[in-house]
Amino acid sequence: MAAFAWSLSTSACVFAIRHAEMGVDVNLCGAWAYPGEMAATGLGQTDREIISASKNYWGFQKEFFAGGIFPSMQKSDALLRSWLNRYPARTIVDGKPKGKITWMPSAELTGVKMNGNVLEQVTAGGTTYDCWNAFDGSDENDLAKAIGLPMALGRESRNLTGEKAAGLRVPQLQSGTSAIDPVTGNRLPWLKPRPRNSNPGDGDSSTMAFNTRTIITDDPNRIQFADQVVPGYNPSNYDREFYLANIKQYKTIPGAFDDILQPVFTYNTYDMNSAGILFGNNSQGDMFDWHNSTFAERKLMWQDYVCRKAGLFKAICSDPRWAAALPEMVADTKRYGMVPNLWQDSIVPGWPPMMYIRESFRLRAQETIREQDVYFPATTVAEPIATYAYHMDRHPAGVWASANGFVASEGTEDLEQGEETGLLMPWGACKPPIGRCKNVSVGRGIGGTSLGRVKMRIEISQMKIADSLAIIAATSEKLGLRSSELDYQTQVKPALLAQGAVIAL
Hints:
Blueprint lengths: L1 E5 L3 H12 L3 E5 L29 H6 L8 H12 L6 E3 L2 E3 L2 E4 L4 E7 L2 E7 L2 E4 L3 E3 L5 H6 L3 E2 L5 H4 L9 E8 L31 E2 L3 E3 L5 E2 L14 H10 L20 E3 L23 H24 L1 H6 L1 H7 L3 E2 L17 E2 L4 E2 L7 H5 L8 E5 L10 E3 L4 E5 L12 E4 L13 E3 L7 H4 L5 H20 L9 H11 L7
Parallel strand pairs: 1-2, 1-9, 2-5, 9-23
Antiparallel strand pairs: 3-4, 6-7, 7-8, 10-18, 11-21, 12-17, 13-15, 13-16, 14-16, 19-22, 20-21
Helix pairs in contact: 1-12, 12-13
């Protein structure tokens, strides 16, 4: 018997190594080329654990974040590969059996076989795997969706959930930035009208944050932005950004970063993940159908995104109109560039080879995490499996011309309503509804409202949850049971504590 884990996220990598360490075989497949997916490209550098007490760190996330800090992109990739390559065959270590890990990158998920409410087989990368238990570690909940489990997408209305921050956000107008061409009186041609007439608080299917963790350097050996080879590059594609930069009279590189990422590897590096309207924090309205697209289509979306973003910085540093209009901004941007020898297989060398998908499908699970559970967390829950934490905010889901004639982006404000605090993850939020599938758990698109669920972007929290779900699944396999068939008090809780899990605040 063997378990199956889908995606190469850190969650799935943790699930695999914990399984093997407990003596259970596991097959791991993912559609992207790198283990760790976005964590391998820098995610986790800025998203620190909110729970500060050392007692909350345990298991494989503690090994990954040794010293409480991200291990650098290169070391992250090496560490995750060392986990996945540790047991290429079943073996005995210190008298204890270790399970075999079989893993395959760039392996698209193409089929599943159910027998009643049991997932029996998964086909990925042209290979069909039998599975006793399965784990979905993807941000899109692809495996759970393929099985046909009930899913939620987007933002529920405020009237439906009663949550203050639910539904559509009020557009955040860019002060003084007109969406109207002063010569023609028409809407600027590169701005679309806001794609809905709904009121703030109404529900919709919007998602957010399709972006990369762009790592740049100020090292003398940097790859100059102007020297990037960008497929399809055309400086006129950036009329929108040029217009906005002029309106704002930017004087610095358009990015949100400050401290050098730690630990320093070969070069001083900065995470240019966030930035407002010019660089953007996501694809700004172009990728709302990512979650329903094929893996091949998603890779094309990633390519288009990287080429557009890389082309913007190439334009800033090589198009003479930028230098003439914004000399200080151009000079500051030229101080930086891409990191040599980092992700040379990307469509534009130096740019991350994977997308960060902040929201997609989430499971309609046995339990629903709501806004109140995050803002006013209980110190106990019925069946806790891990501690976690989250900082509540919303990145832009689009850039439009608003009805009153301004350039607008939606949802950029911070949504905190209280102190950041530690939370307890209930087991039921990771399990399908009773009777639907008793041998699958999800580790990232967990059950809850769009705000209440607050997909755990903090990587260390996601790794904790996956570790606990792996312990549960491996324990059930040893007992000849499916993962959802275990009893929490007599089987799950003792197994978690035996492996050092922290399940209390």
